[in-house]
Amino acid sequence: MRVERVSSIRLDWTQRAFLACLALGTAWPLAERPLVAQAARRVDIVSTTGCLREQSAGTWMLVNATDPVKSSANAPSKKELPTTPAMGKREFHLIGVGEFDLPSLKGQVVVVKGLHIVATPVSRLNVTAVTSGAPTCPAASSKPSRSQR
Question: pTM to 2 decimals?
Fold first, then answer.
C-alpha cells in the first residue's frame, strides 16, 4: 500500500484567524471595523472633584461631583486643587481603587482623575489619581419631605 503526501495549503492571516476562531467556537473578530467606530469607543481621561463615600464595603463612590473635564492621568497640580469644597450634581462609581488608600480619605473632598466610562445608571471612573482637596465634605442637602414639595 502506497501513501501519498498531500501538499500543504497556504493560508493568509485572515483565513488562519477565521479557522482559529472556528476551532475555538468564538465569533469572527471584527478586525476590519471602520476607524470611526473605533474612535467612538475611545475613553477619555478626566478630572472631577467631589465627596468620597464608601457605599458598601469596598464600593467607593464620588458624590456631589463636578462635571468631568479632560485631563491627564497624573496627580493634579496645586492650581487644580479646590480652595473651597465643590458641590456638583454628578455621581461616579470608582473602580480600580486597590492602589489607593481610600479609607484615609473617606468623607473628604477629593480630586479624582481617571478613565471616564459612561454608563447607565451611574458612570464609572477607572482611577489613576486621587488627591485630597478639603478635609470634610459639605453637608449634603436633604431631600424635601412630601409636605415640603
Answer: 0.63
Which domains are present in the chain?
12-41 (no CATH), 43-134 (2.40.50)
Whether residue 121 is preceded by a cis peptide bond, meaning omega within 30 degrees of 0, is: yes
Q: What is the pLDDT of residues 39-85, one digit of tens each?
A: 556 788 999 999 999 998 889 999 999 999 888 877 777 777 776 66
Structural Rg of the chain based on CA atoms:
25
Do the beta carbons of residue 124 and residue 94 sit within 8 Å? yes
- Which stretches within the chain are classed as H helix? 13-24, 35-40
Q: Which residue has the cell 473578530?
A: 29
pLDDT of 86-144, one tens digit each?
678 999 999 999 999 999 999 999 999 999 999 889 999 999 999 988 788 877 544 43
* 84-to-24, 78, 137, 143 alpha-carbon distances in Å: 56, 13, 10, 23
Determine how β-strand 123-134 pairs with β-strand 90-95.
parallel
Q: How many helices (H) and strands (E) does the chain have?
A: 2, 6
